[in-house]
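Example record for the data management plan.
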Amino acid sequence: MVEQGRSYASREHVVGATTVVELSGEMDILATTALTARLDEITGARCPDLVLDMRHVTFIDCCGMSMLCRTRRRVEAKAGRLRLAGVADSPSVLRLLRLTGLLPAFDLCLDPDPDAIPGLAGGTRPDGDCRPGPEGAGRPAAPDTAVA
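Corresponding structural encoding:
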């Protein structure tokens, strides 16, 4: 849902120990200014586990990319885990990640459905470790498709 005067929206829910933030619309300076404070709250905890659902992002610029990188750095500093879901469904996000060379810097998952995200359906990893799982950074579950 995009409110009048806003070109973006966000919605969040918690699955086990994971916070899923669904982003939609335009991730530009207006959106990132509003969203950064909430993402900072989420990533300020010890071992944050965060999934950013990018399926409905229609536009992303350098401010949006900066927000993603800032979120990734904060999660790593707290020994947590960040995954981007639905990147294959958002051509603008996929294209910018490729153009900037940042695609390998993020854990990608094909489907933001909790049952489809490795390590999400069960909450925390079986060993209780909150560090990134064996799939590792930049190993997308999404097919490597060309975007014009």
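Summary line stored alongside the record: Residues 109 and 141 are 5 Å apart (CA to CA).
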